[in-house]
Amino acid sequence: MSKTIYCVHLKKEAPSMSFQIYPGELGKKIYENISQEAWNKWQAKQTMLINEKKLNMMDPEHRKFLEKKMSEFLFDGKDIIIDGYQPK
């Protein structure tokens, strides 16, 4: 059963994630401040970014780039623009 948190991305109360999904201090910050709904939105953006930019998750620079985009999306309110993607 999930608890309710104030999600800083959605700017509203929402169900939390059931466990810390990302490692380290950033993971702790995400777990405490980001709802499952917002995380799901990030996951969709992340998949598009990985595909569009042809990121290799074994490459530390690519992981660092993705982590920066994740933080900007979840905490700074920056949307992820995918070149050539037109939402329906």
Name the shape in a single word.
Answer: globular
H-E string: EEHHH
What percent of the residues sit in helical stretches (DSSP H or I)?
Answer: 40-55%
> Structural class of the secondary structure composition?
mainly alpha
Q: Based on the structure given, which CATH architecture is correct?
A: Orthogonal Bundle
Number of domains: 1
Number of helices: 3
Assembly classification: single chain
Task: Tell me the name of the CATH homologous superfamily.
Answer: Fe(II) trafficking protein YggX
Portion of residues in beta strands equals 5-15%
User: What name does CATH use for the topology?
Assistant: YggX-like
CATH class: Mainly Alpha
Low-confidence stretches: none
pLDDT average, as an integer?
A: 92
Question: What is the spatial order of strands in the main beta sheet?
Answer: 1-2
Q: What's the count of strands? A: 2
Organism: Paraphotobacterium marinum
Protein name: Probable Fe(2+)-trafficking protein
Pfam families: Iron_traffic (PF04362)
Function: Could be a mediator in iron transactions between iron acquisition and iron-requiring processes, such as synthesis and/or repair of Fe-S clusters in biosynthetic enzymes. Necessary to maintain high levels of aconitase under oxidative stress.
